[in-house]
Amino acid sequence: QVQLVESGGGLVQTGGSLRLSCEASGRTLDNFHMGWFRQGPGKEREFGAYISWSGNRTYYTDSVKGRFTISRDNAKNTVFLQMNSLKPEDTAVYYCAASAFPLFRGNWYPKYWGQGTQVTVSS
Length: 123
Description:
This protein has strands at residues 3-7, 10-13, 18-25, 33-39, 46-51, 58-60, 68-73, 78-83, 92-99, 112-113, 117-122. By secondary structure, it is an all-beta fold. The termini are far apart.
């Protein structure tokens, strides 16, 4: 079992930056592929970013590509999401997720989820 706890959300102005963290407990993250999803108000949950267990493969959805960067520190059992040039449409609850299975053809279905952290971007 893996428990995931997100932190770092908050209120930021358009163009600002935030860094989300996801700390895992229960198991080490060395063997898990990690990612971030988000769900905006009135929207479906959206896959945002992914990083392989080794960190040598990343994937971003088009809406965040070039602005968000996912990274991980396996020694600290933590995954990060650096979000720059934030826009009001980035307002959402951001969820950290983990899976023993990798991204395949742009699809990824993680087993473990955090509770989410709210990010609000004001215009």
